Every structure is written in structure tokens, then in C-alpha cells.
Amino acid sequence: MRSLIRRVLLDTRYTLVGFPTTLVGFVVLLVGFVAGVGTSVVWVGLPMLAGTLMLARGFADAERGWLSDVLKRPPVRPRYRPAPEGAGRVRRLVNPMTSGQTWLDLLHGILNLPFAILAFVLTLVFWAVPITALLYPVYGIVTSRIPGQVELPELLGFGEGYVANSIFYVTLGLVFTALMPAAVRGAALVRAGLGRALLTGVAELQERIDDLAEGRAAAVSAEANALRKLERDIHDGPQQRLVSLAMELSRAQRQLAKDPEAAQATIGSAITATRETLDELRALSRGIAPPILSDRGLAPALAALAGRCTVPVELDVQVAERYQAAVENAIYFVVAETLTNVAKHSRATVCTIQLTRTGNTLMLTIGDDGVGGAHVAKGHGLAGLADRLRAVDGELTVDSPDGGPTVIVAEVPCG
Known about the structure:
The chain is built from 13 helices and five strands. By secondary structure, the protein is of the alpha+beta class. Helices cover 70% and strands 8% of the residues. β2 and β3 (361-368) form a beta hairpin.
């Protein structure tokens, strides 16, 4: 109820208090635009038109502030094109005319008036009718006794007199009170829709483009880091083992004729090294494309990761359906890298992993009771996880004070 009342009050403030500003803006901007265009042939109108566009930008900024309350989202301010560096006075003067968003601000200032009037009238009616009707039992004692007074209930055939009028008006007031939140909200959205389309639509599109570009760059960076890590691991592990294995086999070949027993021991050592190399290659392959993930999904894959971790893991996976490969891979690698960090650095005695779905978002929460100190600074393993999540529009949050505990939350859109 408190949230509903606050919503009604915010919408009411937007439509009632913002109406005078809209009216003033309409008059000022329309007059300035007409006068500027009409006198631009003699160059006098250019400064006037530029000033009008700057005023339109100011009115638009004020409207964006109101929109953030109505649309329940942070205000998005577009990027106005600045004057070129070293531009002269005339170029700086006409610079507002070169920005498309400034003209959209002016268009909004002019077109907004009819929408503002409609929203203002609807809001005023749905506040005035309930207040007037519900208070009728107070002032109706006087008005019902005025000679020749004909009330609305009598005209509609509901009877006459103070009691009949009171019942009718109180009922009407209750009906309008019940309808008020939806009506006031609808009135606010009618006006806010135009504002969002003209004042923040281009900025939101640009912001989305920037997010996609950042996600693409993050994906490229994450893949490059993963390849470098894989190359380093192969060079430091299997490659060195294979070189050593080749040397062992060459030695066994030389020993075979002279000392068969020594050759047999060397071959046994080579077989052991081969098995260790295969185990290491399997471990590396799990970091590239784990078959269990692609074949069976997240729950079995995460259970396999938890089973291999040297720290006891409490796993709670509350999702069973399959998702896009990119989403599943991102979740898997976050868990894999985090468990590796827990085993190597945390000194934890227990680790908890929970995967749930809330709406169209997968929520992964990983916690441990270790020494803390984990962060996403550049150069650390978690920074690569943040880049990998940004590639799928996800976010990584790390809370790991010195001394612990550590809580890592990954949110990944899945809808």
C-alpha cells in the first residue's frame, strides 16, 4: 500500500507540477523558434535560434529528471556534440544547430503541450472527484437545503434528499478512489511516453550500442587471455612431459640391447609419464569445452567441478532446463575459475555454490569461509571472469574483505 501511494504521488507531481513548466516552455520555445527562423535571413535570427535551442536543452534536461521518477529508471542524458576544438565564435554560436538531439529537444518542447494538458486534466479529475464526493456528507448538510437545489442523484433518478445524495456521492467517491492509481498512472505514462521517445530514445540506443561494443571487446579480451593461459599451461605441462617422454623412450631404445632390465624400468617410467600427461591434457580440455556440460547441462557439470575441488563444496542447483551455450559456458567457467582460486588461495574449509533463476536472470552465488582479499582488479583471475560475463551481458560482484568471508555473485540474462 505504501508503495502504491508513493507511486500515485510521484505520478501526480509529474503531471500537475510539470504542467506549468511545459506551458512556459511551449510559449518560449515556439516564439523563439518562429522569431529565429523568420529573421535568420538577415543573420539576426541565428543567435536567437541558437539561444532557443539551448533553452530547449534546459527544458529537456528538466523533463528527463521527471522521467526518471515516472519510468523508474536512472535518467539517461544524451551526448550533445561539442564545438570543434579551436572553433571560432560563429562556429560555437551555431554549434547547437548541428546536434540532432537538440532539435529533438525543441520538438518535444512544442509537441509536449497537448499531452501535458491531457495528463493534467485526467489527474485533476481523478483527484477532485473522489475528494469532493467523499466530503459531501460534510458540506452536503448545507447544500441539500438550498431552495431549488437539484443534485445529480435526483437527475439520474436515484432519489433526493441529504441521505440519498450522501450515499450516491460516497459510492461515486469510492469508485473513483479505486480507479485513481490506474488513471493517474496512465495519464503520467501518456506524457512520459513522448518524453522517452524524443529525449532519451537516441541516448538509450547509443548506450546499448556502447554496452554491446564493450561486451564484444570483453569477449575478445577474455578469449585472448584464455588462449594465452592455455598456451602457457600446455608449454609448462604437457609439452615438457612429452619432451621428457621422448628422451626416456630414446634412452630405453639404447638400453634395450645392452641392459634389457634397465630398458624395462625406463619403459615403465615412460608409461607412468604418459598416463600423467593424459590426465593433464584431460584437465586442460575441461577448461576448453567440457563434454559433460554440452551433453548433460549445468547441474551435472557443476557437480563434477565440485567433486574435483580439494575444498568441500555444498552445491545447490535449482535449475534443470538448458540454456544457450554461451550462457552455460559463462556460468561453468565462473564456477571453475572460482573453485580453482578457492583451492589455491582462500584457505577455506567449506565452499557453497547456489544457482537459481529469478525471472529472466540466472543468479550464481559462490561463498567461502576463507581469508578473503579476492577482487576483480586487472591482472587477477576474477578480472577475466568479469570480462567473460560482460560478453553475455552479465555482471560480476565480489564482496571479499580481508579476513573473509568471500561472496561472489554472477548475474547472467537467460531470457
